[in-house]
């Protein structure tokens, strides 16, 4: 991705607190800017999802809703 000039990653996916969180942590450690799309992620429970977005993701990335991301990409 670096060779292609990519500096920002937009993340969404299943298992908010597992797959998305693992990817976000790795990308953060590699110096990528990130946007995590809250309403495009899902976890096994609402509590797991909410914890990741309240406590972890704000330290690693910008958290946005899908509508905001789509408007920014226009």
Helix content: 40-55%
**Radius of gyration, rounded?**
12 Å
Whole-number count of domains: 1
The CATH topology turns out to be Rossmann fold
Mean pLDDT: 96
Shape: globular
Distance between the termini: 22 Å
Order of helices and strands: EHEHEH
Q: Please give the CATH architecture.
A: 3-Layer(aba) Sandwich
CATH superfamily: Isochorismatase-like
CATH class: Alpha Beta
What percent of residues are in strands?
Answer: 25-35%
Low-confidence stretches: none
User: Count the helices. How many?
Assistant: 3
Q: Output the structural class.
A: alpha/beta
Characterize the largest beta sheet: strand count, sense, and whether it forms a barrel.
3 strands, parallel
Strand line-up in the sheet with most strands: 1-2-3
The counted number of beta strands is 3
Write the layout of secondary structure elements.
Blueprint: E1 8-14, H1 16-29, E2 33-42, H2 46-60, E3 62-64, H3 66-73
Parallel strand pairs: 1-2, 2-3
Core attributes:
3-stranded parallel sheet, Rossmann fold, 74 residues, 3 strands, alpha/beta, 50% helix
């Amino acid at each position: 991705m670096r060779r292609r000039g990519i500096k920002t990653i937009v993340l969404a996916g299943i298992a908010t607190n597992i797959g998305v969180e693992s990817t976000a942590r790795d990308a953060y450690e590699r110096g990528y800017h990130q946007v995590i799309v809250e309403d495009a992620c899902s976890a096994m429970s609402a509590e797991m999802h909410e914890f990741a977005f309240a406590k972890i993701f704000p330290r690693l990335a910008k958290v946005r809703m899908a509508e905001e991301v789509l408007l920014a990409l226009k």
